Amino acid sequence: QVQLVESGGGLVQAGGSLRLSCAASGLTFRTYAMAWFRQAPGKEREFVGGISWTGYNTNYADSVKGRFTISRDNARNTVYLQMNSLKPEDTAVYYCAATRTRFASISGVYDYWGQGTQVTVSS
What is the pLDDT of residue 103? Predict the structure, then answer.
């Protein structure tokens, strides 16, 4: 049974930082590309960023480029999202996702999803 479990969300002031973690089990983690998505109330789920199975390739949405960094530790079966210079518009539920194909901004390519973790940025 595949599980993706996010953690690290919370309430932070604008300009602050948070690091999200996503621990994977039940799959051969090193063979999956990973991504982070987010969904704010009343909005569609949107791509935040992705990382290849090796960790060598990453891609980010323009809205977070230069502020967010994705990394992974294949020995720990964990992917991370370091979020700096947070803004109120970053408030959302953040989800990690796994795909056997190349990571992409389209949610439909992902095979597995976590349950999400809430991030709230106050102004």
Answer: 82
**3-class SS of residue 29:** helix
Q: Quick one: which of 123, 39, 43, 40 has its CA closest to 88?
A: 123
Max CA pair span of the chain: 40
Instruction: Give me 99's structure tokens.
Output: 């795909």
Do 83 and 49 touch, CB atoms closer than 8 A?
no
CA dihedral of residues 121, 4, 33, 75 (deg, nearest 10):
100
Rg of the chain on CA atoms, in Å: 13
Q: What is the mean pLDDT of residues 31-60?
A: 96
How many CB atoms are located within 10 Å of the residue 48 CB? Answer: 24
